[in-house]
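Appendix B. Worked example

We walk through a single record from start to finish. Start with the input: the chain for 2,3-bisphosphoglycerate-dependent phosphoglycerate mutase, Methylorubrum salsuginis, length 212.
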Amino acid sequence: MERMLVLARHGQSEWNLKKLFTGWRDPDLTPLGVEEARTAGRWLKAQGSQFDVAFTSNLKRAQNTCALILESMGQSGLETIRSEALNERDYGDLAGLNKDDARERWGDAQVHEWRRSYDVPPPGGESLKDTAARVLPYYIQHILPRVMGGERVLVAAHGNSLRALVMVLDGMTTKTIASLEIATGIPLVYHLKADTTVESKLILDKDIDAAD
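Next comes the structure step. The output line below is what the pipeline stores for this chain.
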């Protein structure tokens, strides 16, 4: 039984490029983001991966990344389940603001705390703890049973919704999670043991030879 779980952050979005806080706002992918998603699919295909089901958020940058990955793998039309539970964290009052402008307004230390701490939310928004409170129950109720049933599962989502999952999968603490960055378009390939813990993890990045 394979029990494969692949996590992929969406490719670069228009607001990533502009260094804007995005959260639940819904910009699309840049041309680079489109290529990142297609490359992720090629890397996965080169590794011999195939999927039985995919999960994604209600935001189009993740949905389009999911579709492009599957298209590159020759799996367009695969069952794909969308859920708001997998959305990026809500950045509240910061959404739409340039990150450098936010630092000038509130100071580096305050903005860093909002972005990287576990339980301090930005004004009107969600902390990583808040994000985990919706992501993890959804994972346990809907995604994990499919993995443990032997299905090969793709989750295309966002930096912070995936950080909440990786924190649990990798056994990270509320302190060590602060340093974790999940790059756009880089698949994280997990295989799980029968007790749902991680048997192996592979990061598919540019050092993997995945030429067509």
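Two observations about the output. DSSP finds seven helices and six strands in the chain. Residues 128-148 form the longest helix (21 residues).
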